[in-house]
């Protein structure tokens, strides 16, 4: 059983994601309405170790629900991956009277939360990443906005690709996870999708497919390439040389991480943020909020981190069946 909570801290960690502000807002407002004090921790674990800690009130989160990025800012912090860094972090929490910390981020950030919990600070994780690559949850804050941003951008590339009868390689984010590529592959009607989890590197097969669709009269050939595979410019040159079809590469990059969150991201992030406060108030620690099989639930962080998740094989097949 966790200790009684009087003051909570909130931080965002890892890559930012649209909807993180909606989660922060929900945490701050819910906690204050329940009589708790709230401290904002800037720049994730880096800000914690640097004591960038400030008092938050209801007004601190006014006019933030529609804003992209994270008002708390974020960082990746190597020092916090060491036992010394974690001990220092827990001591700083104690010094500032913080007895519970809500961490909005991905699996790496949850490992940090797990370590803090082990050092006597009650922690709850809220899944925030555009990659959708947290195994315990079917939803992560920011994915919906990012995938819609990418989809709209790919539609635009497709217009010009069709006008010129070109092949277009569009690189979307996802170093280890192909969810954005898979969803856009289906939603944008791409001819090929290259996922880190599935791509076998067989470029000759890809080139044959481009020749085939061209011969059938297709006016464009859209390839969605995930960041984890990369080399989109090189691939474009090789495809053009092998097929004689003009080929261009577009790397969407960080524009996918910004922008005003969608309704779904605002709504789910708000519910998850509020739930995180409720879990702390129920005396829980080392838990992560999730959305699984249509319901908001929570898991033990150790169990959540041990879970595995992979691209849905049927969805991957559908992407290929509809070309
Ligand atoms: P994400 O949370 O999106 O997976 P990262 O993997 O970059 O992003 O992790 C964010 C931060 O979480 C890291 O910079 C580090 O400070 C902290 N973190 C990651 N792994 C651990 C770990 N094993 N122990 C403690 N803290 C960690
Ligand atoms: O985890 C989110 C993400 O945007 C990944 O899709 C991408 O691989 C990575 O972060 C990029 O990180 P950075 O902002 O450090 O370039």
Topology:
Elements: E1 7-12, H1 20-33, E2 37-41, H2 44-49, E3 53-56, H3 83-95, E4 100-105, H4 107-118, E5 122-127, H5 143-164, E6 167-172, H6 179-187, E7 192-194, H7 203-215, E8 221-226, H8 232-243, E9 247-251, H9 263-281, E10 287-292, E11 295-300, H10 301-306, H11 313-321
Parallel strand pairs: 1-2, 1-4, 4-5, 5-10, 6-8, 6-9, 7-8
Antiparallel strand pairs: 2-3, 10-11
Helix pairs in contact: 1-9, 5-6, 7-8
Bound molecules: adenosine-5'-diphosphate and 6-O-phosphono-beta-D-fructofuranose.
Description:
- The chain has 323 residues and is an alpha/beta fold.
- Helix content is 42%, strand content 18%.
- The chain has a 7-stranded mixed sheet with strand order 3-2-1-4-5-10-11, with helices on both faces. A 4-stranded parallel sheet has the order 7-8-6-9, with helices on both faces.
- Helix 4 links the parallel strand 4 and strand 5.
- The protein binds adenosine-5'-diphosphate (ADP) and 6-O-phosphono-beta-D-fructofuranose (F6P).
- 6-O-phosphono-beta-D-fructofuranose (F6P) binds next to loops.
């Amino acid at each position: 059983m966790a200790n009684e909570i009087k003051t909570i801290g909130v931080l965002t960690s890892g890559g930012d994601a649209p909807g993180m502000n909606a989660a922060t807002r929900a945490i701050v407002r819910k906690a204050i309405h329940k009589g708790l004090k709230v401290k904002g921790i800037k720049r994730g674990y880096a800000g914690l170790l640097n004591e960038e800690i400030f008092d938050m009130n209801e007004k601190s989160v006014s006019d933030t629900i529609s804003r992209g990025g994270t008002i708390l800012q974020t960082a990746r912090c190597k020092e916090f991956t060491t036992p010394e860094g974690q001990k220092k972090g827990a001591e700083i929490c104690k010094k500032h009277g913080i007895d519970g910390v809500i961490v909005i981020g991905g699996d790496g950030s949850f490992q940090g939360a797990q370590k803090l919990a082990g050092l006597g600070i009650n922690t709850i994780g809220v899944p925030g990443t555009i990659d959708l690559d947290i195994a315990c949850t079917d939803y992560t804050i920011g994915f919906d906005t990012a995938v819609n941003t990418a989809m709209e951008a790919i539609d635009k590339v497709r217009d010009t690709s069709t006008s010129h009868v070109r092949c277009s390689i569009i690189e979307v984010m996802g170093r280890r996870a192909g969810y954005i590529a898979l969803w856009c592959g289906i939603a944008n009607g791409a001819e090929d999708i290259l996922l880190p989890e599935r791509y076998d590197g067989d470029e000759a097969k890809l080139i044959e497919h481009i020749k085939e669709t061209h011969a059938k009269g297709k006016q464009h050939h859209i390839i969605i390439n995930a960041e984890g595979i990369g080399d989109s410019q090189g691939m474009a040159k090789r495809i053009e040389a092998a097929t004689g079809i003009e080929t261009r590469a577009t790397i969407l990059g960080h524009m996918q991480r910004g922008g005003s969150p969608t309704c779904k991201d605002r709504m789910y992030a708000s519910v998850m943020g509020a739930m995180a406060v409720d879990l702390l108030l129920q005396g829980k620690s080392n838990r992560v909020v999730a959305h699984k099989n249509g319901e908001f639930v929570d898991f033990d962080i150790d169990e959540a981190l041990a879970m595995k998740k992979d691209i849905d094989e049927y969805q991957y097949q559908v992407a290929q069946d509809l070309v």
